[in-house]
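Q: I'm a student working through a structural biology exercise. My instructor gave each of us a protein and asked us to get a predicted structure, then write a short paragraph describing it. Mine is Cytochrome b5 heme-binding domain-containing protein. I'm not confident about reading structure output yet, so if you can add a plain explanation after the tokens, that would really help. Here is the sequence I was given:
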Amino acid sequence: MPPQTGSAEKETQPVSAFLQLLTWEEIKIHNGHGQGQEQWLVIDRKVYDVSKFSRQHPGGSRVISHYAGQDATDAFVAFHNDKSLVKKYLKSLLIGELAPDQPSFESNKKKSLLEDFRELRCTVEKMGLLRPNYTFFFLIFLHIMVLDAASWLMVWYFGISLLPFMVGMAFFIVAQIQMGWFQHDLGHCSVFRKPKWNRLLQIVVISVLKGLPASWWNHLHNQHHAKPNCFRKDPDLNMHPLLFSLGKTLSVEVTFIKIKTMNRPSLHPYDF
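A: Happy to help. First, here is the predicted structure for Cytochrome b5 heme-binding domain-containing protein. I'll explain a few features afterward.
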């Protein structure tokens, strides 16, 4: 995998003559809250106006709006498998690029941490550790179906007396937990090469077997991985203050990096 933006070579490369040169100060104010609620973001030092496109974004408007006024390079790399195809649609949104004297990401981001993590990601991919094991996933799906069927057969054959009911419930609970993790990997498109096969099997597992809408789960979970541990942006942190205590303060803004994995869903440079 070629090195991503953030290196010295990228920062000093010549800029295109027809594009306006922008600074981070100019980009940050276009965060969806001011300037007519315009939304600009940066990908590979190129600046894009996604104000109107955000409503048509396949991943949802909130995911892309969370990066308004910021660098979205790592999120773009992680969420899009066919980057060459997506970049064709980005051409109409291109409005400028970072001036040569501007760093590749905001000043509040730690450059050494990002570069180390990008290097780690490249190393892991080159080692082939992210290639899915189809036999493993097939056995997971098979044992889920066996446990789910066994839970119902236990009650149907032995009745609803205490012992068979408890055994059947144990089978059912384990199956439901495994379904949750299996659909999680499918939602990350980590099982099959083509996203449509991941989506199709995810619908079977979470919608048919568990009774939950896959679109609802993807909508919330994409936001979680777009801004992990960012208060008011990560849905996993939107907890009722009367029930959960998050400490005296929580003002964390972290950089997103997600990698497709075989067993684990993601990898972040910060993990709080």
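A: Here are two points you could use in your paragraph. The domain at 8-126 is CATH 3.10.120.10 (Flavocytochrome B2; Chain A, domain 1). DSSP finds ten helices and four strands in the chain. It's a good idea to check both against the output above yourself.
Q: Great, thank you!
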